[in-house]
């Protein structure tokens, strides 16, 4: 294999030594936002957004159109600066050269030089990046049956995604930011590229932030989620922790009050069909008899929060930033 190789967790160890404010759980945040805000003229793309993503997680980024996902990716990639609050990557401002070396960002429009061939694109990547895994990049391209001699401008959008992902992974990033990467990719390539992504993330301990509107696409690949709405953090945390905090209550819709204990649970959403009522709640006490109580799937939880913009946000302990005096300024 050409390019520098790195042992799994090698640079994570370095990260652990250099990050001062450890979380009570002992893990280390790769990406952390504290009161983060970004305003474009009068429009607030993000406001007072706080969360942390621990090292090695694959975090699904979800939210409605205009919810602030791309803005967050651009801030995390160091391409734009906050107008309030802070965002750090590996404990540093993302625009610093040392932080940017550790980040790869795949923007929604997959910017590549159209006039370059794939081979020239990879050569440019090799020249620009101190760490570059050429063999891996070529393997990912060849798996899509793309000849290296073809011009990028002649590729379909899905094929460009494959090349862009090959470039991003060849940099051997520690943080990979993927903005709706699979939107143009056919189902078979999507399955295959997702497999490549997961294998690379696991082998090299890459922390991944991946946005998608297709919730089923995130289910099974993400162990962490971040849901933004109107520029704010609405739901963040470990998938297991989030599932553990929610229950789906299913009952018949024959009572006057559809929820027998509305003061006892945080109600995220209530939905009625003709005879049935289904509620997603965060129970504070054991649920009373009369309801079928089911552990929800990730997609159930995400959909309920997306449909209910007024639901009380939940940021679980693994996603809550450590508030140092500096961070509270
Ligand atoms: N460069 C910009 N100039 C002005 N407004 C912007 C700019 N970028 C984003 N916005 C605004 O900020 C808000 C958040 O946009 P953003 O693209 O971050 O949302 P998103 O969640 O990625 O949306 P989508 O799901 O549609 O891609 C929107 O209201 C958008 O119009």
Automatic annotation (TrEMBL):
SUPFAM superfamilies registered for this protein in UniProt: P-loop containing nucleoside triphosphate hydrolases
What are the GO MF terms of this UniProt record? Answer: ATP binding
Q: Which UniProt keywords apply?
A: ATP-binding, Nucleotide-binding, Transport
Give me the ranges of the annotated region Disordered.
Answer: 1-24
Boundaries of every ABC transporter domain copy: 31-255
Question: Pfam family of this protein, just one?
Answer: ABC_tran
Q: Which PANTHER family match?
A: ABC TRANSPORTER ATP-BINDING PROTEIN ALBC-RELATED
* Name listed for the protein in its UniProt record: ABC transporter ATP-binding protein
């Amino acid at each position: 294999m050409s390019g520098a190789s790195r042992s799994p967790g090698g640079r994570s160890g370095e990260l652990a030594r250099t990050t001062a404010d450890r979380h009570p759980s002992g893990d280390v945040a790769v990406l952390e936002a504290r009161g983060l805000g970004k305003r474009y003229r009068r429009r607030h793309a993000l406001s007072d957004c706080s969360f942390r993503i621990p090292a090695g997680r694959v975090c699904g980024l979800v939210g409605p159109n205009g919810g602030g996902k791309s803005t967050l990716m651009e801030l995390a990639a160091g391409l734009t600066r906050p107008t309030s609050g802070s965002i750090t990557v590996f404990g540093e401002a993302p625009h610093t050269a040392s932080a940017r070396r550790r980040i790869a960002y795949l923007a929604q429009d997959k910017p590549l030089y159209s006039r370059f061939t794939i081979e020239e694109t990879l050569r440019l990547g090799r020249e620009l990046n101190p760490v570059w895994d050429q063999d891996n990049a070529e393997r990912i391209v060849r798996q899509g049956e793309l000849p290296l001699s073809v011009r990028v401008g002649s590729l379909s959008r899905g094929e460009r995604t494959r090349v862009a992902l090959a470039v991003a992974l060849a940099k051997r990033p520690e943080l990979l930011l993927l903005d709706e990467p699979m939107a143009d990719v056919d189902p078979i390539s999507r399955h295959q590229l997702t497999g490549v992504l997961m294998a690379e993330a696991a082998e090299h301990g890459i922390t991944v932030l991946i946005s998608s509107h297709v919730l089923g696409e995130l289910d099974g690949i993400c162990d962490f989620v971040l849901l933004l709405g109107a520029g704010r953090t609405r739901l963040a945390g470990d998938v297991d922790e989030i599932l553990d905090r929610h229950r789906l209550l299913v009952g018949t819709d024959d009572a006057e009050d559809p929820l027998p204990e509305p003061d006892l649970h945080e109600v995220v959403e209530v939905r009625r069909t003709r005879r049935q009522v289904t509620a997603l709640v965060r129970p504070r006490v054991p649920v009373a008899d009369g309801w079928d109580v089911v552990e929800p799937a990730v997609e159930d939880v995400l959909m309920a929060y997306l449909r209910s913009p007024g639901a009380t946000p939940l940021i679980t302990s693994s996603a809550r930033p450590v508030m140092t005096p500096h961070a509270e300024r």
